[in-house]
């Protein structure tokens, strides 16, 4: 190894942990869903979070976003522990997170422009003209036509709703966005375009992306790392190559199953021609 090369461990040491989950337990009555779970998310990465149905992916995301109570453990976002932060710091922290819930979850009685301005009104004190300018930038950023701003969610296609919801998640220029199954309900071309948009935003804005997904195409084409939830913990996290090597029946059948092999383009599931697969 030359002096300028780094080992994988050294490279890992230089990454900034933007989200640190330690020893988190969440239970509903006697039903323990997450048990002493640990997870790290690094700045600028796209992390795909997968696991069988009902394993607790949404519960973890909601626990991180403080939408439900956990029994124990610590969650540090951008180095801050929300539990011990004062009110002013909590608000600052909230502003650095963006969320796109499944199905978009736009307010149906508001136009796209008004939807995007909801977080701006909540957290910023800006004149309407400036909010309008910022909104136009967000609409362009997610690849929507400027005319979409005046439309109501019922007038938009599924793909446009996802983009509008993403624009709202980006309204306050967050450091990290949480996406709950962002490509579900989209056709393969729409899903591939949405993945491309996510990768583009990561590259241009340095955004960190935490994506709960069942979409193998997304995992193979845009995710830098994958974390697998199983047995109430993060069973394994790493690259696709590391998933393929991991000795667990669910992980093996998920990443080496017939569909995964078709997407990856190689008999053993390695490599990736997901984009080609999708547009065929
Ligand atoms: N508010 C709640 N009260 C009681 N139990 C809950 C609650 N929310 C989730 N659960 C339970 O937690 C478990 C995990 O649910 P969760 O929705 O996180 O699964 P998931 O991994 O996101 O599944 P899917 O991929 O099917 O969306 C389930 O057993 C569910 O019934």
From TrEMBL:
Q: Which UniProt keywords apply?
A: ATP-binding, Nucleotide-binding, Transport
Q: Does the keyword Electron transport apply?
A: no
InterPro entries xrefs: AAA+_ATPase, ABC_transporter-like_ATP-bd, ABC_transporter-like_CS, P-loop_NTPase
In this protein, which residues make up the domain named ABC transporter? 19-256
Recall the GO molecular function terms of this protein's record: ATP binding; ATP hydrolysis activity
Any Pfam family: ABC_tran
Looking at the record's lineage, which domain of life comes first? Answer: Bacteria
List the PANTHER family.
PROTEIN TRIGALACTOSYLDIACYLGLYCEROL 3, CHLOROPLASTIC (PTHR43023)
User: What family classification does the UniProt entry report for this protein?
Assistant: Belongs to the ABC transporter superfamily.
> What protein name applies here?
ABC transporter ATP-binding protein
Q: Which organism is it from?
A: Pseudohoeflea suaedae
């Amino acid at each position: 190894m030359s002096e300028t090369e780094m080992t994988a461990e050294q490279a890992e040491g230089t990454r900034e942990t933007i989200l640190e989950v330690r020893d988190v337990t969440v239970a509903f009555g006697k039903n323990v869903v997450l048990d002493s779970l640990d997870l790290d998310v690094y700045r600028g990465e796209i992390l795909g979070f997968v696991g069988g149905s009902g394993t607790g992916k949404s519960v973890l995301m909601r626990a991180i976003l403080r939408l439900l109570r956990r029994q124990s453990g610590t969650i540090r976002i951008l180095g801050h522990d929300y539990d011990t932060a004062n009110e002013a710091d909590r608000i600052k922290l909230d502003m650095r997170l963006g969320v796109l819930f499944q199905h978009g979850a736009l307010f149906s009685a508001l136009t796209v422009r008004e939807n995007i301005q909801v977080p701006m009104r909540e957290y910023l004190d800006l004149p309407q003209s400036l909010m309008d300018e910022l909104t136009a930038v967000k609409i362009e950023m997610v690849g929507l036509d400027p005319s979409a701003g005046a439309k109501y969610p019922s007038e938009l296609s599924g793909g446009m709703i996802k983009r509008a919801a993403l624009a709202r998640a980006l309204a306050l220029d967050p450091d990290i966005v949480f996406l709950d199954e962002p490509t579900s309900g989209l056709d393969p071309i729409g899903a591939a375009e949405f993945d491309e948009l996510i990768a583009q935003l990561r590259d241009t804005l340095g955004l960190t992306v935490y994506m709960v997904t069942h979409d193998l195409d997304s995992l193979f084409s845009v995710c830098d790392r994958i974390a697998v939830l199983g047995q109430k913990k993060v069973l394994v996290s790493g690259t696709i190559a590391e998933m393929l090597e991991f000795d667990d029946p669910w992980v093996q059948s998920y990443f080496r199953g017939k569909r995964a092999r078709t997407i990856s383009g190689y008999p053993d599931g390695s490599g990736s021609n997901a984009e080609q697969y999708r547009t065929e």
